[in-house]
Amino acid sequence: MQKLWNNRQLRNLLLQGMALAGLLAILGTAGFNAARNLQSSGVTSGFGFLTERAGYDISFSLIDYSPKSASHAYAWWVGTLNTVFFAVVTIVTATLMGLALAMARLSPNWLLSTTARVVLEYLRNVPVLVHIFVWYGLFLALPAARQAIPLFDMGFVSNRGIFLPTFDWQYNSAALFLFLICCVGGVAAVWLRLRHLSRPLRALAALTAVAAITVFATLISGVPAQIDYPVKKGFGFDGGMTLSPEIMTMWAAVTVYFSTHCAEVIRGAVMGVHKGQAEAAQALGASRKLVMLEVVIPQALRAIVPPMTSNYINILKAASLGTAIGFLDVMGTTGGSTLNITGQAIECIAIVMLTYMVLNLALSWVMGRVNKAVQIKER
Fold first, then answer.
1. Which is it for strands 161-164 and 155-158: parallel, antiparallel or unpaired?
2. How far is CA 92 from CA 87, 221, 256, 366, in A?
3. Contact yes or no for 305/370 (Cβ under 8 A)
4. 331 and which of 11, 251, 253, 335 could share a cystine (Cβ 3.0–4.6 Å)?
């Protein structure tokens, strides 16, 4: 027995198992007490409500949604897709805007650097919810639908949202299956052929291959796609795609707010690179732009990625603030409207917590792989 206890690995497994058993016992006791209290209060528990008709509208959805026929489970799926879409788009734009602000802050030009500093200090010290309300007021102040601002004869901007054209694909099942097979084969061929390149470059090449296959398939098949332009109809618009004021507000407000945090992370990492690296490159005749892109930024990435992961996770969680203006993500659908209709508070909040946990863990895993890729490889 003493030998087994002296085995460090076995001892750690035993202690972790005991801790896990204790945690499960606490959660089980809490769940049993909650179920008993709900039963005594006449409130039924369970997840059967997910199959019931939702009955509430969602202003922005990436897939078809009808409140008359959609279930609460389908509403949860729509909200989850809204959360993912918002997070991906905002992460990209906040990073790019943060990079621009960081470069302006590091500029030797006194006016540009001072202006960037004032903007950063002001924007990042204003709560994100205030940003949301300010941007929402700006979008609602746009002209009404009848006086909508045209966008190069392709779309419109009004206080009801931004209306853009979309592609109406007309592939049949056989053509779509063949197209997917070509995409998978093209990505596999590019990935294996360019194995000497880094993973980010191979991923970019794979996406380029998919785009090229899409264009080629469209051309040789007689252009099986039509552009659906939005047109004015009555008091609104018909056709195309609608970006509601709520999704645009969330994108603009959260992008502006978190870009300042991204800018400070990038600026701190760049300043952490020894100035001798830049001086050596400049001594070889490299321009300031080339030095920044090819020497400083690659070395700064090792210090940028870990804290940037926290910013990205906060961006994803900030989607829940959209309930303040009517943007329904997973919190607004399952944790808001569904909860109010069904009264299943524990189940709805549990679903929301589990959804955010899975999304954040997935994002952390992706950033962990990126962090591993940019670290210095020991030889």
1. antiparallel
2. 9, 34, 12, 14
3. yes
4. 335
Which residues are 161's β-sheet partners?
A: 158
What is the full DSSP assignment across 57-87?
A: --S--SS---TTT-BHHHHHHHHHHHHHHHH
DSSP readout, 5-48?
Answer: HH-HHHHHHHHHHHHHHHHHHHHHHHHHHHHHHHHHTT---SSG
Q: Which of 319, 334, 326, 315 is nearest to 161 (CA)?
A: 326
- The pair phi, psi for residue 225, each rounded to 5°, is -145, 140
The pLDDT tens digits of the residues spanning 226-248 come to: 666 777 776 667 766 778 888 89
Query: Contact at 8 Å (CB) between 154 and 240?
Result: no
* Amino acid in position 158: S
Contact 250, 322 (CB under 8 A): yes
Q: In 10 A of CB 85, how many CB atoms? A: 17
For CA atoms 47, 50, 55, 60, the dihedral sign is positive
Q: How many CA atoms lie within 13 A of 164 on its CB side?
A: 6
1, two tokens: 């027995």
Q: Rounded to 5 degrees, what are φ and ψ at 89?
A: -65, -45
Confirm if 228 and 165 have CB atoms less than 8 A apart. Answer: yes
